[in-house]
Here is the input.
Amino acid sequence: MKQLTILCLICIIPLNLFAQNDRTIWVDELTKMAKPVLTALANDALKETMPIEQSSFEYGDRSPFAGLEAFGRLMAGIAPWLELGASQSTEGKLRKEYIKLAHKAISNAVNPNAKDYLNFNQGSQPLVDAAFLAQAFLRAPNQLWEPLPNETKKMVVNAFKKARTINNVPYNNWLLFAATVEAFFVKFEEEADFLRIEYALNKHMEWYVGDGLYADGKYYHWDYYNSFVIHPMLIDIVKVLQETNHPLKHLKGKILERAQRYAEILERQISPEGTYPVVGRSSIYRFGTFQVLSQLALMEELPKELSEGQVRSALTKVLLRLHQPEGTFNKQGWLQIGIAGHQPKMAEPYICTGSLYLTALGFLSLGLPENHSFWTSKPEPWTMVKVWSGDVSVKRDAYKN
Here is the structure.
């Protein structure tokens, strides 16, 4: 027990001296990352000021997609925090500022007369990031959708209808992008194509390979796309279906149970030092690797084996390992390719600066209010801290169907 206590002090205390400081760390990191994107787009200057870094031109120039990539992915991650709304607290006043920026940014992103009107239908990539932007509206309807002027809402709908025309969709997790755009139409009372939702859900039920894992199409891929895309979009789509009489709404329990098992696996990936296995495609999505764990905390649906204190402590440790190395941001505050700093050779040919903002998806737990037990509970050692300290109370991992 003495050994465990010492290790916990090494692993946890230096990074978050008191549990309440964890939230400040998260808010600081999220807003630092978001400010250049939202400020530029709100000022109709994103295309003018955003740097475009890409490691290869094998897939061609990615700059036509970078703006929507950065905006859609960032918004999907920051949305739950914004959904808390403004308040008189220091953080609440900060949210008010970012909500205003988000509204202006949305308006310019979908306005054909704006310089920053984003690409929603040229090439295949816009379907992906239209889906992430749709997720943002699903996750923050009261702050991101309802306050918009009717004219802006019409332009958002028109933008998503343009993304609908992208038909050459790969036979894999991309089915969920098409389905998530349709979930937006279901949620906000627009005519929806339920066939796209049904096809995506049914295929992913077929592609389930067990133990909380889905194959990405015909074959399983050893990477983190179960967290980047698959589990979170399945959860958000089936949540929308709960508001309808659609027969596939019954999948909610099964989808949640599988996500909970995957969350257990993710938590076990986190070493005592806050590192984790870097394997597979899109590793440079950084904190987005842990979206499922953060999302289940937000939903108050963490597996019973995981306490809020251990999840928060583990994720905070990871966040600092990922976002604070020199080179993570350039001098103007834009993300750069890499995991531990600037590592451009780690990017796939389809990656550019905009892609990197998928890291925002790890911040979903900030949608829990400041006084929630996730933020106020005492820090606790996570599974690998217990294992490698020799803690005799740690339990074995167990396969689940």
Summary: The chain is about 55% helix and 0% strand. Residues 30 and 360 are 7 Å apart (CA to CA).
